[in-house]
Amino acid sequence: MLRKLRPLIARVMLPIGRLLARAGITPTMVTLTGAIGVLASALFFYPRGDLYVGSAVVTVFVLFDMLDGAVARASDSASPWGAFLDSTLDRLSDAAVFSGLLLWFTTGGDDPVLAGVVLFCLVGGFGVSYIKARAEGLGVNCDVGIAERSERLVIVLVSVGLGGLGVPYVMEAGLWILALLCALTIAQRLVETRARLSEPSRRVGDAEAP
Predict the structure, then answer these.
(1) pLDDT at 3 (0 to 100)
(2) CATH no. for residue 183?
(3) N or C: at which end does the chain have fewer Cβ atoms within 10 angstroms?
(4) Which phi-psi region, left, alpha or beta, contains residue 76 (left: φ > 0; alpha: ψ -120 to 50)?
């Protein structure tokens, strides 16, 4: 859904990317800074129950995920390795966010139900990403789904941050909605991948392959 905003975000970020590139900052440096920042802040603040501060700090470092591409374009240094590293660290960053929340809900937060919901969101997020990667590995596009990574991060960070400020029911509602959207996105991608792999042209091609 937020995919439509990416061209606009890219144009906004490009001048910042140029400044960083002139300062000798590489895309890899930006990617690593963002990932390490998310990992450290999510696993430090969330298990302590600092939900608002944790969400605010994590959001700052998540923004680096937008900057690395801008730096790569500005310095003409985009590469397959950079894309692979960025994607891999995105998965680890997402895991850190939900793992930090899981630790809180199973300890000081003492909410087994929300702990289960967070665990489902963690597993579901990996499922959403894996289905797309596996489909592309089989040669088909699976760029569909109601809740891609950007949407999932916005929902979890906003709802948890507001919950940390004491806004009632927002965090619980956000996490339940996120769990539902993960399940729907998995279903969407499974259906899309099956349809694309079942196209007549693909079946004929497979049959003719040696």
Answers:
(1) 63
(2) 1.20.120.1760
(3) C
(4) left
pTM recorded for the entire structure: 0.88
| 92 within domain boundaries | yes
17 Cβ contact list (under 8 Å, min separation 6): 67, 69, 70, 71, 72, 73, 74, 75
Domain around 92? 2-199
> Does some domain include residue 25?
yes
What percent helix, strand, coil does the chain show, rounded to 5? 80, 0, 20
Flag whether 110 is marked binding.
no
**Residue 148 and residue 162 in contact, taking contact as beta carbons nearer than 8 Å:** no
- Backbone angle region of 79, left / alpha / beta, with phi > 0 → left and psi within -120 to 50 → alpha: beta
Residue 205 CB neighbours (<10 A): 11
Catalytic residues: 90
How many structural domains does the chain have?
1
Task: Collapse the DSSP code of 63 into the 3-class scheme (helix H, G, I; strand E, B; otherwise coil) and give the result.
Answer: coil
Tokens at residue 209, please? 């392959």
Q: Is 73 annotated as a binding residue?
A: yes
pLDDT of residue 210: 42
Domain assignment present for residue 209? The answer is: no
**Mean pLDDT of successive 10-residue stretches along the chain, which has 210 residues:** 65 80 86 94 97 96 83 81 89 96 95 97 95 92 87 95 96 97 96 89 51
Note whether residue 207 is domain-resident.
no
